Amino acid sequence: MVRAVVLPAPGAPLELGEIELPEPGPGRVRVRLAAAGVCHSDLSLSNGTLRQPVPAVLGHEGAGTVTAVGEGVTAVSPGQRVVLNWAPSCGACPFCARLGEPWLCTEANAASGVPYARAADGTELHPGLGTAAFAEETVVAERGVLPLPDGVPLVDAALLGCAVLTGYGAVHHSARVREGESVAVFGVGGVGLAVIQSARIAGAGTIVAVDVSPEKEELARRAGATDFLTASDTTAREIRGITGALGADAAIECVGRAETIRAAWSSTRRGGRTSVVGIGGKDTRVSFSPLEIFHFARTLSGCVYGNCVPERDLPVLAAHVRAGRLDLGALVTDRIGLDGVPAAFEAMLAGRGGRALVVFGQE
């Protein structure tokens, strides 16, 4: 039996208890977690914004050590340090095989619909986003783990599984920020802080961070922001003022609200690029007039998992960590136990802090 945080139903309070994990079957891997990040996507799963079969063990951003492998597993072995991959590509669907866009894989979240463990009373449990990282241990498919390169602390490596891959990819693969460009970052949570650091690594000249909480300014500036704005109705105008009346070359939206997406788009220059990382509800709308779409010639695009290929991008991120260019610890404002996950959700709803990290004590 292992301790885990269980979501009984969408909108229901989280429950901390013990669950029973099976031994890994063919093609599966058992991992002892060192740490798990509390991501806004977990909150969206818990409140029903994102679909997830329940009851479920949430958590998808994690790192740990392989303890056992099933028949046929060759990618990892017991004792190996790994990062969980919540969106493994199948390699065979049209997005993987023909279009070269594995981050859009149609099978990436298939594992979330298959029970993987049982509660103490025998109830079948589903793995949140296929990974179930809010537990001392988990069992995932072989494709759901990535070997962790040397030189990266195991606890902090949990952040590579979602926040950092997403933030890095949003900058380098989606917005394609070039040296000397200006970037506006909307939302200074875990992903937003990763975006700011990645924009700095890309050589952005001006990095404007925007958040509803003025207390986030210190976090943003430590990550590399050159300017900070408290979100308001005049944010887009203020960003144009900071960028010489043109607007930002690129804006990256990490909130997922209609008004924030609109402000991000309006803050960019003619021909500017806006990438939407934040996940919003289906019942809100963003409006544009046909004339402004023609006149401004801006680009607005969604960004799934940073448009990353984790097997390709994880070694690059590890190199940045080893060189001191990427500070994983700077994303973390709270280190908690499993019992702290509900409070971390409340902090996210209130707009407080960066990333909360569940730490299990493994180094």
Secondary structure elements and pairings:
Elements: E1 2-7, E2 15-20, E3 28-38, H1 40-47, E4 56-57, E5 61-69, E6 81-84, H2 94-97, E7 117-119, E8 124-127, E9 137-141, E10 145-147, H3 154-157, H4 163-174, E11 182-186, H5 190-202, E12 206-211, H6 217-223, E13 227-230, H7 235-242, E14 248-253, H8 258-266, E15 268-276, H9 290-296, E16 299-302, H10 310-322, E17 332-336, H11 341-350, E18 355-359
Parallel strand pairs: 4-8, 11-12, 11-14, 12-13, 14-15, 15-16, 17-18
Antiparallel strand pairs: 1-2, 1-4, 2-7, 3-5, 3-9, 3-18, 5-6, 6-10, 7-8
Report on this model:
The protein has 363 residues and is of the alpha/beta class. The protein contains eleven helices and 18 strands. It has helices at residues 40-47, 94-97, 154-157, 163-174, 190-202, 217-223, 235-242, 258-266, 290-296, 310-322, 341-350, and strands at residues 2-7, 15-20, 28-38, 56-57, 61-69, 81-84, 117-119, 124-127, 137-141, 145-147, 182-186, 206-211, 227-230, 248-253, 268-276, 299-302, 332-336, 355-359. The strands form three sheets. Strands 3, 5, 6, 9, 10, 17 and 18 form a seven-stranded mixed β-sheet that branches. A hairpin with a 7-residue loop joins strand 1 and strand 2 (15-20). The two termini are 22 Å apart.
Keywords:
alpha/beta; 18 strands; 26% helix; 363 residues
Biggest sheet statistics = 7 strands, mixed
| Beta-strand residue percentage | 25-35%
Q: Output the helix-strand order.
A: EEEHEEEHEEEEHHEHEHEHEHEHEHEHE
Gyration radius, to the nearest Å? 20 Å
State the oligomer.
Answer: single chain
Unreliable sequence segments: none
**Separate helix tally:** 11
Gap from first CA to last CA: 22 Å
Q: Roughly what percent helix?
A: 25-40%
Taken from the alpha-carbon principal axes, the silhouette is: globular
Structural class: alpha/beta
Beta-strand segment tally: 18
**Mean pLDDT across all amino acids:** 96
